[in-house]
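task queued by scheduler; priority normal; single chain, no ligands, no partner chains; default sampling; output format set to structure tokens
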Amino acid sequence: MIKINMSSKLKMKKCKGSGRCVATFAVLTGLAAYYYTAPVVDSESVLSDITAKIEQVKETVLTPKPALDMNAQIAAIAAEDQAMEEQTPSADNSVESDEPEHIPESAVVENRENILNDYQNLIADEFHIPENMRNRVGFWFDIYTQHNSHKRLIHHSEYPWIVFEIVDVTPIIETDTPKFRWMRNMKADAMVKQQVEKTKTALKSLSKRKNFENLTEDETRVMNALSHLDGEVQKKAKFALNNVRVQMGQRNFFQEGLEVSPKYLPGMEEIFENYNLPVELTRLPFVESSFNKHAKSKVGASGIWQFMGNTGRKFMVVTDHIDERTSPFKASVAAAQLLKENHMILKRSWPLAITAWNHGPPGMRKAMAKMKTNDLGEIVEKYRSKTFDFASSNFYSEFLGALFAERYHKEIYEDVNYAQQLNLHTVKLSKNISAKDLLKRSKLSAEDFMLFNPDLKKAVQMNAQVPSGFMIMLDDDSRDHLKSIVASATLGKKKKVSKPTAQNEVTLSEPVAGEL
């Protein structure tokens, strides 16, 4: 049985009332355009105009009717999903609210070095941190465990652990002025950009200095950061000048993932065990999406595993009305298959196979051939190409950082509100049926049906046909209601399913995950 929480949902502020959403968005879009194009802007005047126009919009919105039939429920969910997609453009961004946002404080992990040494033996040996990647993994571990999203780390993109400055934008974000979050974000971004320019100015100056007396405060700060690298200061500064990057802290996002993940991890672990794969691999969604099933990247990746469309179609049903990438469990089966395939192709090396999740097996084979090594640490340190970019070269380090943070999370995070679990069974449809008829016969509310089967949201909205043999997920009651149209099956099991008999049309699916 798969455990999924019905009541605990992602901490996202949904837009209620599609008319309000569209009208408000139109107003803000126009004002944002004005804000960007006007040469001089009086912020108080802009805020006053925005507030007045928003109030006008609110006055035109009718109060929604409380009683909703099935079609109205579906329409309401579709409107909320549309608003969610507009507010959640990628897996890396949080949903924005205009209210001042108070998030957990950044923290120092007292036992950091012992954790990175896996002092409690919580992690399989094959995922221990390679010595030549220790600093890189440590950087990402700190991003997930120490720095919240109000901290912006100005650092070296080639040597990420070389941090020039940590900019705290909390005073800007956690305030009620300006009133709208997007304006506060712009102000925070401007502040960070200013500090980046100061860092670059200091690096440029250091690269031309003949002596290092009477340094400015910025030059001293930058030179201290570069002191952790070998070589002449001038050369190090010149190289760093073209490799300055900003990384947002992720501690609060990671904690949200910790809270949501108990809904999925037990089932995911059993799926991976059925494929004889290490359960450590199931922590990859912490990197890809923080277990945000609504996550959608700017390039079209979707779901907690962030499958692209073409890759998804290789392992799942991805059509105009059915998208199994959004089902955490079906996508986990696909992920197990893909990771196992990568592992077999790439010398049975998990560092290479996991990096190939981001960079692709052909790209990894090219890197291995050019560097004449299977050692990912050496490849990351020395290999350069247009496609083996920051994301690819850091992907395995991000995974290890997330893995160690999750395994030792009880030592690191406080006040984690774990999601509760719900028993779900996976069954197979024995005939074609329209999505709305399936929903109606299940006796589930539209919200619960789509919670269990997010891959069928569009099918329900379009009333598309759900084909015979399609796998759906049901609780005990809804499975009983659908006995006449389902045959037994078990998600992730590599075994034959007994044929239904007249006496027993549905055989109970074997447990997919037990209690946590």
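post-processing summary
- Strands lie at 2-3, 151-156, 163-168, 244-248, 423-429, 433-434, 465-466, 471-474, 486-488.
- Residues 207 and 239 are 9 Å apart (CA to CA).
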